[in-house]
Prior knowledge:
Layout: E1 2-7, H1 14-28, E2 32-38, E3 51-56, H2 64-82, E4 91-96, H3 101-109, E5 113-118, H4 127-139, E6 142-145, H5 148-152, E7 160-162, H6 169-172, H7 179-185, E8 187-192, H8 200-209, E9 214-219, H9 223-232, E10 241-244, H10 251-255, E11 259-261, H11 275-282, E12 287-289, H12 294-297, E13 305-307, H13 313-323, H14 327-341, H15 346-357
Parallel strand pairs: 1-2, 1-4, 2-3, 4-5, 5-6, 6-7, 8-9, 8-11, 9-10, 11-12, 12-13
Amino acid sequence: xxxxxxxxxxxxxxxxxxxxxxxxxxxxxxxxxxxxxxxxxxxxxxxxxxxxxxxxxxxxxxxxxxxxxxxxxxxxxxxxxxxxxxxxxxxxxxxxxxxxxxxxxxxxxxxxxxxxxxxxxxxxxxxxxxxxxxxxxxxxxxxxxxxxxxxxxxxxxxxxxxxxxxxxxxxxxxxxxxxxxxxxxxxxxxxxxxxxxxxxxxxxxxxxxxxxxxxxxxxxxxxxxxxxxxxxxxxxxxxxxxxxxxxxxxxxxxxxxxxxxxxxxxxxxxxxxxxxxxxxxxxxxxxxxxxxxxxxxxxxxxxxxxxxxxxxxxxxxxxxxxxxxxxxxxxxxxxxxxxxxxxxxxxxxxxxxxxxxxxxx
Length: 361
């Protein structure tokens, strides 16, 4: 079997990281895999004798018209690229996120099996994303959702599977689980994109309210964009906060933290999974996450973290202070977080995805 994989934007965000983990597992099964995506991200790290990689230039723009034009070009490119598989009977199309609709359309026109790995909550986004979700429900042979929350929004339930994301074993094994060491760091971490709905402004506000703790944010953007965001939103930063631009390796940041926040505003966007929360729990770090979405499914309130909406900043402030000043509580949360992360093992998740694709053990 050959698997033709299509992914729009190859960067260091959650969906390409998940795809890298999935493809690494499939390559171990001696699958033949072709990957078409943009240049410059985690998918560039894939290696294997049965792997063929194809690249094109693509990046986002602050100008929405430019972004739409680039997106349209990418879909046309994917559509025509996909026709090279017309005479190959054993090819499965694997569409990562709902964005590569051009490849999905070509696949269905050729009668290929089209599997969508659906990462977004399109129904909480714009009309454009809802149209892409509608296209997915009509073009997909099978749909892989990352949470029950995400699946609940789909009108179609046939051949829809819930398979949560996983972290690569090579990532997880780099952590040394030691609650006492993590607690001593007295650091609060957030790994996020540079969007207002991600709670960037609120994170900075929390750092001002809690000057005795260290606050660190890793943003999936460039330093210039961060400086502009801080200026536009009149953010005042004290000596206890540091914002880092896009990083190839986030492990050192988790290793230097005690607690991880996800402050996504549920009124503006809802997390379908929450990869950074899983990364944190794999390091034995308690988390504070929103009350809605797939990320909330990962957290048992008061056991491995807390579920608090970003609108209740006073409560979040109180919880941070309590967690980082009560070691007995911290140790309990840490051990439960670490244990919970084991249910998202790479081997387990990859076996379930392989089953959907139709690969034998």
